[in-house]
Amino acid sequence: MKSLLFLVFVSLAISNQFESVIGGYDYSSPAFTTLVYSFALKAKVVDNTINWENILMKFFSLPDDLLQNNKIDSLEWYAPFCNATNFAELSSAVNRIPREIRTNGPILDIIRSNLEPVRDADAKIKQIYVQFFNKTIVDPICLRLDGFITALDKFNSKKLKFSRLKAVNEEYTNMVRKYDEIVRNLRGQLDNAIIKRRAYAKQFQLLQQKLNRYEPPQGRSEANKQNEEYDFDYLKMLQAVSKDLNEKMNSLENAVNAVVLAVNQYIDQRILWAEFLLNIPFYHAPQKKSSFSCFGGSKIKK
Protein backbone atom coordinates (compact mmCIF):
# COMPACT_ATOMS: atom_id res chain seq x y z
CA MET A 1 0.00 0.00 0.00
CA LYS A 2 2.81 2.40 0.93
CA SER A 3 4.58 1.57 -2.35
CA LEU A 4 1.40 2.30 -4.26
CA LEU A 5 0.97 5.67 -2.53
CA PHE A 6 4.60 6.54 -3.29
CA LEU A 7 4.15 5.73 -6.96
CA VAL A 8 1.01 7.85 -7.07
CA PHE A 9 2.89 10.77 -5.48
CA VAL A 10 5.77 10.50 -7.96
CA SER A 11 3.34 10.24 -10.86
CA LEU A 12 1.49 13.36 -9.74
CA ALA A 13 4.77 15.27 -9.29
CA ILE A 14 5.90 14.42 -12.81
CA SER A 15 2.48 15.31 -14.19
CA ASN A 16 2.55 18.66 -12.39
CA GLN A 17 5.98 19.43 -13.85
CA PHE A 18 4.68 19.00 -17.39
CA GLU A 19 1.46 20.88 -16.69
CA SER A 20 3.45 23.83 -15.36
CA VAL A 21 5.26 24.33 -18.67
CA ILE A 22 2.69 23.00 -21.13
CA GLY A 23 1.66 26.52 -22.08
CA GLY A 24 5.06 27.12 -23.61
CA TYR A 25 6.77 30.53 -23.63
CA ASP A 26 7.27 33.55 -25.82
CA TYR A 27 10.40 33.23 -27.96
CA SER A 28 10.89 36.99 -27.77
CA SER A 29 10.94 36.95 -23.96
CA PRO A 30 14.20 37.42 -21.97
CA ALA A 31 16.13 34.16 -22.17
CA PHE A 32 17.59 33.85 -18.69
CA THR A 33 14.42 35.08 -16.99
CA THR A 34 12.47 32.48 -18.96
CA LEU A 35 14.99 29.79 -18.03
CA VAL A 36 14.86 30.54 -14.31
CA TYR A 37 11.07 30.66 -14.36
CA SER A 38 10.87 27.30 -16.19
CA PHE A 39 13.40 25.71 -13.85
CA ALA A 40 11.65 27.07 -10.75
CA LEU A 41 8.27 25.71 -11.89
CA LYS A 42 9.74 22.22 -12.18
CA ALA A 43 11.88 22.49 -9.05
CA LYS A 44 9.13 23.57 -6.69
CA VAL A 45 7.17 20.44 -7.56
CA VAL A 46 10.08 18.33 -6.33
CA ASP A 47 11.06 20.64 -3.44
CA ASN A 48 8.84 23.57 -2.52
CA THR A 49 10.87 24.54 0.57
CA ILE A 50 13.19 26.70 -1.54
CA ASN A 51 12.28 29.80 -3.55
CA TRP A 52 14.22 28.68 -6.60
CA GLU A 53 13.30 31.66 -8.75
CA ASN A 54 14.55 34.10 -6.12
CA ILE A 55 17.88 32.43 -5.41
CA LEU A 56 18.77 31.72 -9.07
CA MET A 57 17.72 34.99 -10.74
CA LYS A 58 20.51 37.04 -9.13
CA PHE A 59 23.15 35.17 -11.12
CA PHE A 60 21.76 36.44 -14.42
CA SER A 61 21.97 40.18 -13.77
CA LEU A 62 24.64 42.52 -12.43
CA PRO A 63 24.09 44.66 -9.32
CA ASP A 64 22.11 47.82 -10.06
CA ASP A 65 24.86 50.12 -8.82
CA LEU A 66 27.15 48.89 -11.59
CA LEU A 67 24.57 49.65 -14.27
CA GLN A 68 22.43 52.56 -13.16
CA ASN A 69 23.28 54.94 -10.37
CA ASN A 70 22.58 58.66 -10.32
CA LYS A 71 24.88 59.35 -7.38
CA ILE A 72 28.10 57.74 -8.56
CA ASP A 73 29.70 57.01 -11.91
CA SER A 74 28.59 53.79 -13.57
CA LEU A 75 28.55 52.00 -16.90
CA GLU A 76 26.06 54.59 -18.13
CA TRP A 77 28.64 57.23 -19.04
CA TYR A 78 28.11 57.54 -22.77
CA ALA A 79 26.18 60.82 -23.11
CA PRO A 80 28.28 62.99 -20.76
CA PHE A 81 31.48 61.51 -22.15
CA CYS A 82 30.48 62.41 -25.71
CA ASN A 83 29.63 65.95 -24.65
CA ALA A 84 33.00 66.39 -22.96
CA THR A 85 35.05 64.89 -25.80
CA ASN A 86 33.68 66.20 -29.08
CA PHE A 87 36.47 65.50 -31.55
CA ALA A 88 34.87 67.52 -34.34
CA GLU A 89 35.09 70.62 -32.15
CA LEU A 90 38.70 69.82 -31.27
CA SER A 91 39.60 69.50 -34.96
CA SER A 92 37.96 72.85 -35.69
CA ALA A 93 40.05 74.41 -32.94
CA VAL A 94 43.25 72.96 -34.47
CA ASN A 95 42.28 74.30 -37.90
CA ARG A 96 42.21 77.84 -36.48
CA ILE A 97 46.00 77.80 -36.42
CA PRO A 98 47.48 78.95 -39.76
CA ARG A 99 50.17 76.85 -41.41
CA GLU A 100 51.51 79.83 -43.37
CA ILE A 101 53.64 80.97 -40.46
CA ARG A 102 57.01 79.31 -40.96
CA THR A 103 57.34 77.79 -37.49
CA ASN A 104 53.77 76.53 -37.34
CA GLY A 105 53.77 73.83 -40.03
CA PRO A 106 56.18 71.28 -38.52
CA ILE A 107 54.73 71.63 -35.00
CA LEU A 108 51.17 71.41 -36.30
CA ASP A 109 52.13 68.16 -38.01
CA ILE A 110 53.34 66.78 -34.68
CA ILE A 111 50.16 67.92 -32.91
CA ARG A 112 48.02 66.29 -35.57
CA SER A 113 50.07 63.08 -35.37
CA ASN A 114 49.44 63.07 -31.61
CA LEU A 115 45.72 63.51 -32.17
CA GLU A 116 45.18 60.93 -34.93
CA PRO A 117 45.40 57.88 -32.62
CA VAL A 118 43.32 59.77 -30.06
CA ARG A 119 40.60 60.32 -32.68
CA ASP A 120 40.58 56.64 -33.67
CA ALA A 121 40.59 55.33 -30.10
CA ASP A 122 37.95 57.85 -29.02
CA ALA A 123 35.59 56.61 -31.72
CA LYS A 124 36.37 52.97 -30.89
CA ILE A 125 35.61 53.43 -27.19
CA LYS A 126 32.29 55.08 -27.96
CA GLN A 127 31.48 52.30 -30.42
CA ILE A 128 32.27 49.71 -27.75
CA TYR A 129 29.70 51.30 -25.49
CA VAL A 130 26.98 51.41 -28.13
CA GLN A 131 27.59 47.89 -29.46
CA PHE A 132 28.74 46.18 -26.29
CA PHE A 133 27.77 47.61 -22.91
CA ASN A 134 24.41 48.93 -24.01
CA LYS A 135 23.26 45.64 -25.58
CA THR A 136 24.95 42.61 -24.08
CA ILE A 137 24.65 43.26 -20.35
CA VAL A 138 20.88 43.04 -20.69
CA ASP A 139 19.07 39.71 -20.74
CA PRO A 140 19.07 38.61 -24.43
CA ILE A 141 15.79 37.39 -25.86
CA CYS A 142 15.39 33.66 -26.43
CA LEU A 143 15.60 33.90 -30.23
CA ARG A 144 18.95 35.69 -30.15
CA LEU A 145 20.80 33.34 -27.84
CA ASP A 146 22.31 30.68 -30.06
CA GLY A 147 20.98 27.19 -29.30
CA PHE A 148 18.91 28.29 -26.33
CA ILE A 149 15.39 27.57 -27.59
CA THR A 150 16.23 23.99 -28.58
CA ALA A 151 17.86 23.37 -25.21
CA LEU A 152 14.99 24.88 -23.22
CA ASP A 153 12.40 22.92 -25.20
CA LYS A 154 14.34 19.75 -24.47
CA PHE A 155 14.53 20.64 -20.78
CA ASN A 156 10.79 21.35 -20.65
CA SER A 157 9.97 18.02 -22.28
CA LYS A 158 11.59 15.98 -19.50
CA LYS A 159 11.01 15.60 -15.79
CA LEU A 160 13.37 17.17 -13.29
CA LYS A 161 14.73 14.44 -11.07
CA PHE A 162 15.38 14.89 -7.37
CA SER A 163 19.03 13.89 -7.88
CA ARG A 164 19.47 16.67 -10.43
CA LEU A 165 17.89 19.23 -8.13
CA LYS A 166 20.17 18.07 -5.34
CA ALA A 167 23.19 18.63 -7.60
CA VAL A 168 22.04 22.19 -8.35
CA ASN A 169 21.52 22.84 -4.65
CA GLU A 170 25.02 21.57 -3.86
CA GLU A 171 26.54 23.74 -6.60
CA TYR A 172 24.79 26.87 -5.34
CA THR A 173 27.63 27.87 -3.00
CA ASN A 174 30.14 27.69 -5.85
CA MET A 175 27.82 29.76 -8.05
CA VAL A 176 27.63 32.46 -5.36
CA ARG A 177 31.40 32.46 -4.97
CA LYS A 178 31.96 32.76 -8.72
CA TYR A 179 29.36 35.51 -9.08
CA ASP A 180 30.89 37.54 -6.24
CA GLU A 181 34.35 37.07 -7.76
CA ILE A 182 33.18 38.34 -11.17
CA VAL A 183 31.37 41.34 -9.68
CA ARG A 184 34.38 42.23 -7.51
CA ASN A 185 36.71 42.08 -10.52
CA LEU A 186 34.32 44.09 -12.70
CA ARG A 187 33.87 46.70 -10.00
CA GLY A 188 37.65 47.10 -9.68
CA GLN A 189 38.16 47.38 -13.45
CA LEU A 190 35.27 49.82 -13.72
CA ASP A 191 36.65 52.02 -10.94
CA ASN A 192 39.96 52.19 -12.79
CA ALA A 193 38.24 53.00 -16.09
CA ILE A 194 36.30 55.79 -14.37
CA ILE A 195 39.54 57.39 -13.16
CA LYS A 196 41.17 57.07 -16.60
CA ARG A 197 38.09 58.37 -18.40
CA ARG A 198 37.83 61.43 -16.21
CA ALA A 199 41.55 62.17 -16.66
CA TYR A 200 41.21 61.84 -20.43
CA ALA A 201 38.12 64.08 -20.57
CA LYS A 202 39.84 66.70 -18.42
CA GLN A 203 42.94 66.69 -20.63
CA PHE A 204 40.75 66.79 -23.75
CA GLN A 205 38.96 69.90 -22.50
CA LEU A 206 42.27 71.49 -21.48
CA LEU A 207 43.69 71.06 -24.99
CA GLN A 208 40.51 72.41 -26.56
CA GLN A 209 40.63 75.47 -24.28
CA LYS A 210 44.29 76.08 -25.13
CA LEU A 211 43.60 75.75 -28.85
CA ASN A 212 40.71 78.20 -28.65
CA ARG A 213 42.88 80.69 -26.81
CA TYR A 214 45.46 80.80 -29.59
CA GLU A 215 45.51 84.27 -31.13
CA PRO A 216 45.73 84.26 -34.94
CA PRO A 217 47.75 87.10 -36.50
CA GLN A 218 44.71 89.17 -37.53
CA GLY A 219 43.27 89.18 -34.01
CA ARG A 220 46.42 89.12 -31.94
CA SER A 221 46.87 91.44 -28.98
CA GLU A 222 49.56 94.12 -29.18
CA ALA A 223 51.66 92.42 -26.53
CA ASN A 224 51.72 89.15 -28.46
CA LYS A 225 52.36 90.94 -31.75
CA GLN A 226 55.59 92.20 -30.23
CA ASN A 227 56.59 88.64 -29.28
CA GLU A 228 58.34 87.13 -32.29
CA GLU A 229 58.34 83.72 -30.63
CA TYR A 230 54.61 83.71 -29.85
CA ASP A 231 53.64 81.09 -32.43
CA PHE A 232 56.61 78.85 -31.71
CA ASP A 233 56.16 79.01 -27.94
CA TYR A 234 52.39 78.56 -28.04
CA LEU A 235 52.49 75.63 -30.44
CA LYS A 236 55.25 73.90 -28.46
CA MET A 237 52.95 74.15 -25.43
CA LEU A 238 50.08 72.70 -27.49
CA GLN A 239 52.38 69.91 -28.63
CA ALA A 240 53.07 68.94 -25.01
CA VAL A 241 49.39 69.08 -24.05
CA SER A 242 48.41 66.96 -27.08
CA LYS A 243 51.11 64.42 -26.17
CA ASP A 244 49.64 64.14 -22.68
CA LEU A 245 46.21 63.64 -24.20
CA ASN A 246 47.57 60.82 -26.35
CA GLU A 247 49.03 59.11 -23.28
CA LYS A 248 45.82 59.49 -21.29
CA MET A 249 43.84 58.00 -24.16
CA ASN A 250 46.19 54.99 -24.20
CA SER A 251 45.56 54.50 -20.49
CA LEU A 252 41.80 54.83 -20.98
CA GLU A 253 41.77 52.39 -23.89
CA ASN A 254 43.62 49.80 -21.80
CA ALA A 255 41.22 50.33 -18.90
CA VAL A 256 38.14 49.99 -21.12
CA ASN A 257 39.53 46.81 -22.67
CA ALA A 258 39.96 45.41 -19.15
CA VAL A 259 36.31 46.23 -18.40
CA VAL A 260 35.29 44.52 -21.63
CA LEU A 261 37.18 41.38 -20.61
CA ALA A 262 35.49 41.41 -17.20
CA VAL A 263 32.05 41.87 -18.73
CA ASN A 264 32.79 39.12 -21.26
CA GLN A 265 33.67 36.81 -18.39
CA TYR A 266 30.28 37.47 -16.85
CA ILE A 267 28.39 37.08 -20.13
CA ASP A 268 30.11 33.78 -20.76
CA GLN A 269 29.55 32.61 -17.19
CA ARG A 270 25.83 33.34 -17.45
CA ILE A 271 25.63 30.89 -20.34
CA LEU A 272 27.62 28.29 -18.38
CA TRP A 273 25.14 28.65 -15.52
CA ALA A 274 22.23 28.36 -17.95
CA GLU A 275 23.74 25.20 -19.41
CA PHE A 276 24.24 23.81 -15.91
CA LEU A 277 20.62 24.42 -14.91
CA LEU A 278 19.35 22.89 -18.15
CA ASN A 279 21.99 20.15 -17.97
CA ILE A 280 22.46 20.74 -21.70
CA PRO A 281 25.62 22.35 -23.20
CA PHE A 282 23.67 24.25 -25.85
CA TYR A 283 26.42 26.79 -26.48
CA HIS A 284 29.69 25.43 -25.13
CA ALA A 285 29.53 22.28 -27.21
CA PRO A 286 32.92 21.18 -28.65
CA GLN A 287 32.06 22.30 -32.18
CA LYS A 288 31.21 25.86 -31.15
CA LYS A 289 33.53 28.72 -30.33
CA SER A 290 32.87 31.60 -27.98
CA SER A 291 32.68 34.91 -29.82
CA PHE A 292 30.85 38.20 -29.54
CA SER A 293 31.33 40.51 -32.47
CA CYS A 294 34.95 41.73 -32.40
CA PHE A 295 35.11 42.01 -28.64
CA GLY A 296 35.09 38.35 -27.56
CA GLY A 297 32.56 36.71 -25.22
CA SER A 298 29.37 34.82 -25.98
CA LYS A 299 27.63 34.83 -29.31
CA ILE A 300 24.34 36.72 -29.38
CA LYS A 301 22.42 36.68 -32.64
CA LYS A 302 21.56 40.06 -34.09
Care to describe what's here?
The protein has 302 residues and is mainly alpha-helical. It has one domain. It contains eleven helices and no strands. The radius of gyration is 28 Å and the shape is rod-shaped. The N terminus and C terminus are likely disordered.
Brief write-up:
This protein has one domain.
Structural class based on helices, strands and sheet pairing: mainly alpha
Cα end-to-end separation:
57 Å
Beta strand %: under 5%
How many domain regions? 1
Low-pLDDT windows of residues: 1-23, 287-300
Number of beta-strand segments: 0
**Major β-sheet annotation:** none
Computed over alpha carbons, the radius of gyration is: 28 Å
Shape: rod-shaped
Percent range of helical residues = 55-70%
Mean pLDDT: 82
Question: Which properties best describe this structure?
Answer:
disordered N terminus; rod-shaped; mainly alpha; 302 residues
SSE layout:
Elements: H1 2-21, H2 31-46, H3 52-57, H4 64-67, H5 78-84, H6 87-95, H7 104-136, H8 148-156, H9 162-212, H10 222-225, H11 230-278
Helix pairs in contact: 1-2, 2-11, 6-9, 7-11, 9-11
